[in-house]
Amino acid sequence: MSSTYGERFRLTIFGQSHAPAIGVTMEGLPAGVPVDLDRLQQFLDRRAPGQSRITTSRKEPDAPEFVSGLVEGRTCGAPVTAIIRNTNTRSGDYANLRDCPRPGHADYPAQVKYGGYQDVAGGGHFSGRLTAPLCIAGGIALQLLEKLGITVAAHIQSIGPVDDGRFDLAGVDAAQLQALLRKPFPVLRDEAGDEMKAAILAAKSDLDSLGGVIECAAVGVPAGWGDPMFGGMENRIAQMVFGIPAIRGIEFGLGFPAARLTGSRHNDAYYMDGDTVKTRTNHHGGILGGITTGMPVVFRAAVKPTASIARRQESVSLSEQRDAPLEIHGRHDPCIVPRAVPVVEAAMAIALLDAYFCAGTNTTPDAPWL
Amino acid sequence: MSSTYGERFRLTIFGQSHAPAIGVTMEGLPAGVPVDLDRLQQFLDRRAPGQSRITTSRKEPDAPEFVSGLVEGRTCGAPVTAIIRNTNTRSGDYANLRDCPRPGHADYPAQVKYGGYQDVAGGGHFSGRLTAPLCIAGGIALQLLEKLGITVAAHIQSIGPVDDGRFDLAGVDAAQLQALLRKPFPVLRDEAGDEMKAAILAAKSDLDSLGGVIECAAVGVPAGWGDPMFGGMENRIAQMVFGIPAIRGIEFGLGFPAARLTGSRHNDAYYMDGDTVKTRTNHHGGILGGITTGMPVVFRAAVKPTASIARRQESVSLSEQRDAPLEIHGRHDPCIVPRAVPVVEAAMAIALLDAYFCAGTNTTPDAPWL
Amino acid sequence: MSSTYGERFRLTIFGQSHAPAIGVTMEGLPAGVPVDLDRLQQFLDRRAPGQSRITTSRKEPDAPEFVSGLVEGRTCGAPVTAIIRNTNTRSGDYANLRDCPRPGHADYPAQVKYGGYQDVAGGGHFSGRLTAPLCIAGGIALQLLEKLGITVAAHIQSIGPVDDGRFDLAGVDAAQLQALLRKPFPVLRDEAGDEMKAAILAAKSDLDSLGGVIECAAVGVPAGWGDPMFGGMENRIAQMVFGIPAIRGIEFGLGFPAARLTGSRHNDAYYMDGDTVKTRTNHHGGILGGITTGMPVVFRAAVKPTASIARRQESVSLSEQRDAPLEIHGRHDPCIVPRAVPVVEAAMAIALLDAYFCAGTNTTPDAPWL
Amino acid sequence: MSSTYGERFRLTIFGQSHAPAIGVTMEGLPAGVPVDLDRLQQFLDRRAPGQSRITTSRKEPDAPEFVSGLVEGRTCGAPVTAIIRNTNTRSGDYANLRDCPRPGHADYPAQVKYGGYQDVAGGGHFSGRLTAPLCIAGGIALQLLEKLGITVAAHIQSIGPVDDGRFDLAGVDAAQLQALLRKPFPVLRDEAGDEMKAAILAAKSDLDSLGGVIECAAVGVPAGWGDPMFGGMENRIAQMVFGIPAIRGIEFGLGFPAARLTGSRHNDAYYMDGDTVKTRTNHHGGILGGITTGMPVVFRAAVKPTASIARRQESVSLSEQRDAPLEIHGRHDPCIVPRAVPVVEAAMAIALLDAYFCAGTNTTPDAPWL
Predict the structure, then answer these.
(1) Is the pLDDT of residue D184 over 70?
(2) What's the whole-model pTM score?
(3) Mind telling me which residue stretches traverse the membrane in this protein (chains A, B, C, D) (predicted)?
């Protein structure tokens, strides 16, 4: 189904931008998991809008209410549902969109698919606002992963032409990731961050928008998670990450540049680090044959420039079957990349946690049949 | 589950490189679908090894036997299972791999995951040979899509440093794709193809290997296929494509370069072409909000260089927990990109057909409740 | 997953008896489906407690709030989530149950499964109260099925020793079912209903409880729904019906008595009724090989007597590992059968609607490949 | 999908009665599981036809070939596919069935569903022959369950009017079940078995057929398997058991008779047996709230009389839309109940094993978050 993800940690995201609420229903969390609601709120706040001049002026607290599944701060084994009320809605802004689709948005294909019955207000179920419940699930997943010794963090690798550089694939570690998590604008080089913010403000004043690339890493993931073929970690992460609006590509490890190397340069040599098997380089991004190797799991996701721009654009009138210009009003981020960083971390965490739960039936030393 | 894909056209791929057989079990094909076995065989032959100096010398006919689901050349509504016998196996080549994992292969993580019980011969279930049953399913899917007016074809965009250029995203059409399908070495510019072949042979004589990028397009896909969030066409295609060994990245439409454009340049303007809604450019690659727009669906997949190279490499002895050099023998492709082209087409076709079947419950003009 | 049902009409039921809310998240409803909320409320009211002396005194309005998926009274194609606030909770009644499990309830196995972290208040996620969101989904399904010409209704076949008789399997029709739906106490013979009510009140005054059998029929279901093997209509209905607490058995058509007949007496002879194929008897209950035949679909479900009784019972102290008597306080139905009637109808409707959506990919006269 | 079952131990059954082969593809078996092929063959032989005068004269060895997933007698973590060649086919016997459907068979609804493209020979995918691959999966599941200390066996509770009595629900133990497994005609009282055989032969000579009831028990199942609502053990077992052709009903524990008891008599009192929680009676059949309690899991399944009888029956000509008599030729069991006994055991075993694998993500004492 369209808005459901996962095998053993399964979540369904519901809601539309201007519905009474958005939210998530989660199944598969073991009973007894403590959920630290304060830390979850801090995580959600990283995604929330209205924090600075480079984000949309729509302000909503994004405070989830857990209506089921938690008892005295712990999961009880039943499905966990959390909702976030939509309070700051201005649906009048969107009245024209059923007839005149916005370039770069889902308006037109949704019109065809749903025969005109889709919720057009604010992009409906396609709105970036739906990444808030994704972050509820992801924030909980991050809390569990932390207890397994796993740290997940992402940085803004580029915005428009400004480049922050990449992680050292083999060398990225928990300390570096935790430092990133403390930054309000997570980049490896703060000067790059300043240039990025300047570029966003320039685009905004130009009634335009920018995209970028987010690089995400998880360290501490043990070897052996993931499955061959369609259940590989790349498949799982990619299926999740493309659920974030505006993502146009994903690459693991060295990614597309791997296609230009020779095998002798691309292959990652094994060595023993004490009793741990490691690779000297990490072009493989911590995944081989779909299964984690114990090296850092690293991927990059390309985010297209925000489709909503205040400039006049070419569109059509679907009812009159003629070309028609369009001007979009409303409140929009000139660049969603900064707010997408925790969403990408949430995506990584959800995919990892599900893979962890799936790995439970594999052979173990004490399996009664061995 | 790991080796299963799809919601309404569901397939499970089974087999190991040196097991008695490999094959596929498919569910969800409607009854009455004619399967042209001759054309299917021609499609499988495009993937088969042993065709020229640039592929492995392992020769196997890859002739599927349909043991269930077909009656007099048509599907009967029951699951369709086809098997390919493994005849040309040389399992002695692989005895050492349980202890000394090959760089770039799944040997090590599989050893951890399966506790040493995995089938190591020829890569077992991780072998590229498993793309043969994928092509059985894909070849059937292509036959159905053809009847829906859809053409799917891919070309080799690059091998190592040699670049063939990209499709004209908005202009690619069925005629261009059909011309590609007739080429034994599918490139847009044949001179690029000659350079690629030379590069492959040079790598081979250098005991090395090359990777590349494959670009795949589908034209004729109507608007309205795919679902929001995790059921989007990108999610579906990516989950399938990463099931092909050696894929390291995927991008849709303009892909990663989209991250460097401004919104005003990236957004695809709508216009009416007669009574059809089209976009002047196709940076979105035929998909918005996860749903097809009617424009060509285009993606690119990065293939890493073949991990099996004849050079001495650094590895470890897992039993002795020490570094140990490794030399790989056996027969391997110096570059799998040419043989991966039909596999990528198969992947696109399977994802499209499943999405088509899934689109069946959406609103239609004659739904009794409208 | 435990609380999720369905392939194409998929619902997840969440909530616990004394959580902030209970509810349901539904996927797969086509866009544009009108939902008549007044009729839905009437349907829910049939299940609601507190209506008479034969039900529990816990009174709650069971008024659903649709927080997503509906726009101006119609589905919009996005997941539909409805919640019912729990207002009348008295969790103090249940404090002892973590240590001293109630006979006939899930307390003990839940304690083992969830390690003591389950929500014990009011039975938590195991409470019969969770049938309210099931009825939300079922009530919507019934509205769609009605537009497809299908009528679903159930009657109380027996309560304790009082028997109402069975449907005429081949003769039951829409008029008879609609008459049942108008009855506050749905029985075929009203005098049997009076006896049943008297038996319930007698059990109540005896601090005891009663069970019964519910027989449910659907007429107007066309031939061809359902799938062979594990996707058969019996499999689908049974998987749903056993999701209702207290169900101990299900049988289709003639059911268990079929095991005592000879084939010549059990087989249902075919005949033509105009241009419609019918069977003279309907021992098969409208399903052969898992697929509907066009005859009425009929099943019976056995409901055990309410496990909560006010009498002193034998139990154990789990913490002290010794036998311990138990007295249950709280408000309980002496017989849940009357309130379970709409729940069983909801179950039938959900299973049918899902099968209808699944049937969409089968061969049709205008399939392009035929 | 129709012929797929299971969440974590997932199997797809393929093949038709007269296709080249029938078989099963299984996913989710951990790596390293030894499969004793001799014992598996012995289990399959219990189901095989042609053993005596009371079964069909179609003789086939039912010898599975494992084409994938096994290496040196153990699972390797990849999907396991086994096929059984159909050798003794006589498809000419069934030519007429596309037009003139057999009463009690799936011919007519399959004709509607598949538009005439279904495989009619021998019942195609609906044939009882498809229970052979079910027994392959079930036989392997039984071998794993045995290592977990679980014994599964069924007896023929009744055939036609002859009754063998029921298990002592609370008292049935492994020794009693193992004794049953050694009997060629598994009944509690051998004199009942003799009467049953006589009844079958009488029905056969009368050109008629008989049905019956099979009662199945599993002992040694620990408390805590299964999930609430739709993932309960009853739901799981019922969804599997209705995949066996001819099953018309299923009941757990006391079953339908529970509907006639009062709560005070039906509730099973808890007591401590050493440090084990047990119930004095076992009306609940080892399952409460969908979760196992540690008491024997017991269900009963009703098998209708064989639909294929040699007598002239009433049917219709679908092409001519008129009533038409029908005489069925071919080889059929006058009563399938004896051969269905191992199939029912296989069904129980598959459902249990899948539930066991699903239970893996629940809370455990050493979970890092507790």
Answers:
(1) yes
(2) 0.97
(3) none
